[in-house]
Structures are given as structure tokens and as C-alpha cells.
Amino acid sequence: MKKYTKIALAVSVAGTSAFALAGHSSADSARQAASVGNAVPAVNIAQRVDVTNVAYPLESYKLTDDQEKKIVQAVDALTVSCMKSFGITYKPVPSTGDNGLGSSHKHLYGVTDEKEARTYGYGDPDVGQEVQKQTTGETDEELAVRLGEVTTYNGKPVPEGGCQGQSSRQVFKGQSAEQGEAFTDELILQASARTQEDPRVREVFHKWNNCMKDKGFSYKTPLEALDDSEFAAPSVTQREKDVAVADAQCKKNNNVTGVWSSVEMAYQKRAIGENSARLAGVRANIQKNMQSVARIK
């Protein structure tokens, strides 16, 4: 059974963004991302157990699910046309438009639902509802043309990066990594890392730790429990269920999710304030991309 991912990688970065279709990643901007200060930001602590429907500040500088879907569809349409010019009928897999926002929030801070924990432990209860992945039905030769793994096909030059690479460039218009969502992703990761070192979060982790000890389990932080190699196997043991239930109970009893999420949002807000000019550029480029997509039929 699929297990939850570590929290530091969870917020919107877990999935591949449409921007990655152009060959960019958050790693490209890591060296250039602006660092935020070391002062502890002020924060109003919310009382919450679940963050499924919580909107995080930096997500407003990311593509929405609908925008993601439209961009993927535009790239697919251009790729179909390019492949047709080589005499190849390409049938792309329909886009779900799920870029990881919203749905990933449910388990952003690990297990929080005691009922789910009793059945699935640290397993993802939604894994059984996943739709069977579709395939494009391409031959190896056709795939090579789409991805640019060959330079010619039937005597005709294949564009750099293949039909998909060419199509992505048409949509993104030469946009550089620092102009795209990769910069937002890096700021999200920075905020997540700083949140885990924040004294208020460390304090609530300590309370969670004491609560877990009272229940017979010794983990310093929720991250440590989540990352226990004993729970990596696909099958769910009774011990895993017991630890996960205790984890969820201790989070709820000490408002761990409320503190954690509130502090994380504060660090994200500060990152926005200290990187407002570049983030304005990110948002402007998203708008340009959507205008480009609207012109593609």
C-alpha cells in the first residue's frame, strides 16, 4: 500500500507541474531562490485537525488545477499536430488536471484521521480508488520522435526535444526557470524547512512526543514516526495501525496540525513579502501562458 510522503516535499511539489514539460524543475531555481530572514514571524494559531481545504499563501503563485489541465491539453494538441506531420497518429492520455494542490493537503501533515489510521495505518486510503493508468499505445520509434530521442524520422528532421519539446516551447515562449513555478516551489520548500525549526512547532512536537510516550511509543516528532522504515512495507501491521492511531490522537489533543499549518503559512507570507517582485513575475508569466494557451486550437 502506498504510504504518505514526507511533509517537506508535500506542498504542491509532489506532482510534476506543467512547467516541467518545458524541461524545468525546482532544482533549477534552488541556487537562485531568495532566502528569507531568520526572525520568527508573528502568527495567529488556528485550531484545526484537517487542512484539506486550507489555502496556502504561495499557492496563489502556482497554476490552479484547471490552468494545469488547459496547459497540458494545449501541449498535447500541438504534439498531436507535430506527430501527424511525421505520419504518426498520437493519442495522448487525457489530463486529470490534478497538480497536487488541494488533494495532497489531506495528508500534508501525515495521518490525522483516527478512523483511517485504524484501518490503513500510514497507508494512503485513496490508493485503491486510483484510476487505472492509460497508455498512449506508442511504438518505441514513435515515442522517440515525441521525446526527441532521434534526430530524424523517415528522412525528416525531428525538432530538438521532439514534438513534445517543441510544443512545450511554443506554449512557454522561452520562459526561464526563475520566471516560472520552480521559484515558487523552492520558496514553499524553504518555508516548510523553516517551519519545522520554528520554536512554536518544536514546542508542539515536544507535547506530541510526550503524548506518544504515554501511549507507549517513542518518536521525537511526527516526521520520525511517518518515516519509520518498519512501516515501509506494502502490508499494514497491527503495530503500524496502533502507532498511526496514537499519532492522530496526539496531533488532535495538542493541536499539532493547527500550530504546524499556521506557522507554515506565516513563513510563506513572509516569503511573499520578501520576494514580491519575482513572484509578481511568476504570476505574470502564468497569465502569459494562459493567453498563449487560449490561442492554441
Output the keywords.
two-stranded antiparallel ribbon, globular, mainly alpha, 297 residues, 48% helix
Descriptive account of the structure:
The radius of gyration is 22 Å and the shape is globular. Strand 1 and strand 2 (156-157) form a beta hairpin. The chain is an all-alpha fold and 297 residues long. A two-stranded antiparallel sheet has the order 1-2. The model is unreliable at 6-37, 99-103 and 129-133 (pLDDT under 50). 48% of the residues lie in helices and 1% in strands. Helix 6 (181-197) packs across helix 10 (256-274). The longest helix is centred in the N-terminal third of the chain and has 21 residues, at 65-85. The chain has helices spanning 26-30, 65-85, 114-120, 140-147, 162-172, 181-197, 199-214, 222-226, 238-253, 256-274, 276-294; strands spanning 152-153, 156-157.
Summary, kept brief:
The chain is mainly alpha-helical and 297 residues long. It is built from eleven helices and two strands. A two-stranded antiparallel sheet has the order 1-2.
